[in-house]
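<tokenise_the_fold>
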Amino acid sequence: MISIVVSTKNEEENIGRLIESLKAQTYQNFEFICVDNFSTDRTTEIVKQYGYDVISKGPERSVQRNEGIKRAKGEWILWLDCDMSLLPETLETCVKLASEHSYDYLTIQEKIPEVSLFAKMRNFENKLLLKTVISVPRFIKSSLFKEINGFDESMTGAEDWDMAKRLSQLSPRKGILYVSETRGIIHHEESVSYRRFLEKKKYYTAGCILYERKWGSRDQDVRRQLHAIPRLWHIVSAPGNLQTILSRPVLFLYLLLVKALPSLFTYKTSQ
């Protein structure tokens, strides 16, 4: 069984779409765990209309996700954001892929509906990140997730990197589920503007600083995730990425420009 853990906070516009995508899965052996941060809109009402219980917990998503992980009964945990939906064969393919190759966790490729050049650029970036430490697993063996005690609750913004780093210390058996017409994650950020994108990055700055302090600025993964030149080289040198970049040079230059405007750094340290 798969335990699907979702944290919510005023997500009435998104939660129904996510649940509908779960109902449409070819694999139905799952439980849905919604941990809500005291929403003031119709989020919890909508979840309950679908027949699911709601757990109230805050103040941030790391705490919410950990509460869901503690209550999970499945062999696998899939943690999702509310503005996502799953293509119909995603759960079935995750179970099959992990079983056939003895993977302990999977990274699932995400795709944003390409309604703008910015969205197209972000999909291109997501593809480049798949084989790097910048991309994080979402489908994880429950026993391992619980062994590392889930997410670091002191962080919001880099808690997924921190989780992935601790997970990799226990097991290197990681796989990738590539997006297709019938499997993968649709990330409904097509309406997110560049300004809103930068605002989110700024909000997560404190978590990135805590993450670097925890692991040290000389840690190889930290440098590849947070520092411009090591990050760029890590992306370019990842298997298959140079060919991908050379096939879309203009889009890659646009990606560099977009990242360079706030600087290629994910954040600016306080040092």
